[in-house]
Amino acid sequence: MNKHILIADDDPHIRDVISFALEKAGMQPTLAEDGRQALDLFRAQAADLIVLDINMPELDGLEVCREVRKFSDVPILFLSSRDDEIDRILGLEIGGDDYVTKPFSPRELVARINVILKRSQQLTPSSTAITPGELRLSKLTIQPQQHTASWQGQNVTLTATEFAMLHLFARQPTRVFSRDTIMGSAYDGNVYVSDRTIDSHIRHIRQKFAEKGCENIIETVHGVGYKLANCQ
Question: What's the whole-model pTM score?
Answer without folding.
Answer: 0.60
